[in-house]
Amino acid sequence: MKHVAPTRPSKSFTCPHCGVLARQYQFSVTEKHLGGVNTYSASDWLAVSICEHCQGATLWLSEKMIHPNRGSAPLPNPDMPADVKQEYEEAATIAALSPKAAAALLRLAIQRLCVHLGAEGRNINADIGSLVKQGLPEMVQKSLDIVRVIGNNAVHPGQIDADDAEVVGHLFHLANIITETMISTPARVGALYANLPKTALDAIAKRDADA
């Protein structure tokens, strides 16, 4: 599903509550609603977006989302392991304030994800290398290395600007892509395959044994 980052002026965006791309009804709280003399600048105004799909409320201070406190990061893949999701969600809550810190947390998240994929978890670079030897798809390898390298630059500054909110925003998507490719899709395919008729499964097994 397409992800559209929440922004104050948008009439529709991906809801930070339900994760659905839906119409958002905007309501501003100004001095006219509060009464009294206008002593507020535009940057002081509060606004609320109500999601048409789930009726969840997003609260804005001028153009900054202040509730829920997860910035514009997409919701984590439901199949993301719990310990990985914990780091992902923490990164989401601080991404707007410190993209660099969020990048470092996402690096930790994919290091934990590598363990779930069969790596030892001692060294993230070595873990990715061992997974490649086990047949890790090239797209997943590249995604892991992108998060690894940018996350490393957040801790040890290099040539990549890990404090760039747009760059770090892509890391959230990559964490979800890795989870979808390596966990969600195999689980769905496995469930469909297991539901094939026994006669068909037996015939497939015989075919492969004779190959």
Structure report:
The structure is a single chain. The protein has 211 residues and is of the alpha+beta class. Helices cover 50% and strands 13% of the residues. The chain contains seven helices and five strands. A five-stranded antiparallel sheet has the order 1-2-3-4-5. β1 and β2 (21-29) form a beta hairpin. α2 (82-94) runs antiparallel to α3 (99-116), α3 packs across α4 (124-133) and α3 packs parallel to α6. It is flat and about 75 Å long. Mean pLDDT is 85; it is low at 35-41.
User: What is the succession of H and E elements?
Assistant: EEHEEEHHHHHH
Kindly state the percentage of residues in helix: 40-55%
Main sheet: strands, sense, barrel: 5 strands, antiparallel
Mean pLDDT: 85
Beta-strand fraction estimate: 5-15%
Count of β-strands: 5
- Structure class: alpha+beta
Shape: flat
Please give the order of strands in the largest beta sheet: 1-2-3-4-5
Parts with pLDDT < 50 across at least 5 consecutive residues: 35-41
Number of helices: 7
Oligomer class: single chain
Radius of gyration: 22 Å
Q: Gap between N and C termini, in Å?
A: 39 Å
